[in-house]
């Protein structure tokens, strides 16, 4: 079963963390929460979810994880000003490890300069940013690129996002 690094901080979109986490854990995977600093709690922007942060970014190594999950909301934008977080995300893309990003999640991958030439989707307000970063934007509920990168647009797409992240991990034998 896969060990999945989750980059998350305050103001994440509640359902975009809780729903995929539940889907992954139901299939036996472990979801590990990581922020700039560890040993604290963060809250979703809807006020519904409270998440205990297990590790600070300085305490983790990308090689210790099988996949990366980036929930949406304002969290990805708040995280991408930290070079350590950006480098962590970029290492998964460079290593072709599975990466799951929903809504505003791809903002972190834009800053990592890791999506040029990739098929992708995301929240409509970041479409131009994705295109300017060289990605090929598709207005679809879920896009799977090169059997590595799974992206979705909004909480309404969670059923498809959850299905594809679980399928990809299974396909990879994780």
Automatic annotation (TrEMBL):
<dbReference type="InterPro" id="IPR006286">
    <property type="entry name" value="C56_PfpI-like"/>
</dbReference>
<feature type="domain" description="DJ-1/PfpI">
    <location>
        <begin position="3"/>
        <end position="167"/>
    </location>
</feature>
<dbReference type="InterPro" id="IPR002818">
    <property type="entry name" value="DJ-1/PfpI"/>
</dbReference>
<dbReference type="Pfam" id="PF01965">
    <property type="entry name" value="DJ-1_PfpI"/>
</dbReference>
<keyword id="KW-0378">Hydrolase</keyword>
<comment type="similarity">
    <text>Belongs to the peptidase C56 family.</text>
</comment>
<dbReference type="InterPro" id="IPR029062">
    <property type="entry name" value="Class_I_gatase-like"/>
</dbReference>
<dbReference type="GO" id="GO:0006508">
    <property type="term" value="P:proteolysis"/>
</dbReference>
<dbReference type="GO" id="GO:0008233">
    <property type="term" value="F:peptidase activity"/>
</dbReference>
<protein>
    <submittedName>
        <fullName>Cysteine protease</fullName>
    </submittedName>
</protein>
<keyword id="KW-0645">Protease</keyword>
């Amino acid at each position: 079963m896969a060990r999945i690094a989750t980059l998350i901080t305050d103001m994440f979109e509640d359902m975009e963390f809780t729903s995929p986490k539940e889907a992954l854990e139901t299939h036996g995977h472990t979801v590990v929460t990581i922020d700039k600093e560890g040993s604290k709690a963060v809250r979703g922007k809807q006020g519904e979810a409270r998440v205990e942060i297990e590790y600070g970014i300085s305490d983790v190594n990308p090689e210790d994880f099988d996949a990366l999950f980036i929930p949406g909301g304002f969290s990805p934008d708040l995280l991408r000003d930290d070079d350590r977080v950006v480098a962590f995300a970029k290492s998964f893309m460079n290593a072709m490890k599975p990466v799951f990003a929903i809504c505003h999640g791809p903002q972190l991958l834009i800053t990592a300069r890791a999506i040029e030439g990739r098929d992708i989707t995301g929240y409509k307000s970041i479409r131009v940013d994705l295109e300017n970063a060289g990605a090929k934007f598709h207005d679809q509920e879920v896009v799977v690129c090169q059997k590595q990168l799974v992206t979705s647009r909004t909480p309404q797409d969670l059923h498809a996002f959850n299905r594809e992240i679980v399928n990809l991990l299974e396909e990879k034998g994780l």
